Each structure stands twice: as C-alpha cells, then as structure tokens.
Amino acid sequence: LTSLILLAGAASFFIGNSYQAQMPGFATDLGNADPGIAYTALLGADAAGALAGGLLLESGRKLFETKTTSALVLAILWGAALGVFGVTRSYPVALVFLFATGFCELSFSSMTQTIVQMQAPNAIRGRVLGLFSMSSSGLRTFSGITVGLLGSVMSIHTSLALASGCFVVAAFFLLYRVSQSTRRP
C-alpha cells in the first residue's frame, strides 16, 4: 500500500495533468500550420489511448495482472512515453506517444486505486483511501511548478522531460523496493 500511495503521489507531484495545460504550446512548437487542429489532435490522441486502455481493462482480457509490480511497470511506461513526447519534434511521433501516455496512465492509475481499495485494512480503510486520494490529487499543485514554472524558465519540452525522468527514477526505486520485499522470506 505504501508503495502505491507513494507512486500516486510521485505521479501527481512531478507531472500531474500539467502537460495537458501546456498542450497549446506543444502544438505550436510541433510546427503544424493550424495549432488549433494540432492541439485538438494531441488531446484526442491522449484521450483515445485512455479510452483504449479502459476498454481493454473492462473487456475481461488479462493483459496485465492486477498487482503492484504491474502498476509500477505501467507507471514507468507512462513516464517514459511522456518524456519522449516532451522531447520529440515530430508531430506523428508525438501523437503515437500521447496515445501510449493515455493508455498507460489510465491503466496504472486504475490498477493502483483498485489495489489500494482491495488491500486497505478494514479498520483504517477510510484513512488509507483518504491518504491515497490526497496523494494522487492533492500533490498536483506542485506539478505546476515542476512542469509549468520550469517550462517558462527553460522550455515546456525540457521541463516535461525532466519531470518525467524524475518520476521514472522514483517509480524504478519503488519497483526495486517492492521486488526486494517480495524476495525476503
């Protein structure tokens, strides 16, 4: 439970949904003739990935087991996809990685929340779920600093890549800790 609450907090703290607020800037920087259409397509790719993830999760097919390591791997893939999106200068590549971002984000966040709800001890279930909710939503304030404010100092591309990199490092650390704890007798 601790690892998943920390994972949700790291995703919220480092990235949150700040990249979506920066999407008009990404659309303009990717050099399309009409930034309005480019912006819509970028958001649409992210949403289509999430829709595909949701449909796959609800289809009953087991692409991933509902376990902590699966959630951590999906979170790492989410962070990596966002990092690639942040540094690419190719519009088609950006669309592909935003689709992957939407798919992985919905998958890991749904899986994380499911596991926390199922494993929270009955005696403190409300407190655990409240802490998880605060971690996954409440820390989004700081993603405005890690992506937004730093983006105004360097560039939104660099700040998103750095924030994604920090998140991936944190998720790898949590994956390492979980794998070490499952190996101990």
Describe the structure.
It is a single chain. With 185 residues, this protein is mostly helical. Helices cover 81% and strands 0% of the residues. The chain has helices at residues 2-14, 18-21, 23-29, 35-58, 68-87, 91-119, 125-138, 143-153, 156-183. The longest helix is centred in the middle third of the chain and has 29 residues, at 91-119.
User: Would you list the SSEs in sequence order as H and E?
Assistant: HHHHHHHHH
> What is the number of E strands?
0
What is the overall shape?
Answer: globular
Classify the helix fraction into a percent range.
over 70%
Beta-strand level of the residues, as a percent range?
under 5%
What keyword list fits this structure?
globular; 185 residues; 9 helices; mainly alpha
Task: Provide a brief overview of the structure.
This protein is an all-alpha fold and 185 residues long. The chain has helices at residues 2-14, 18-21, 23-29, 35-58, 68-87, 91-119, 125-138, 143-153, 156-183.
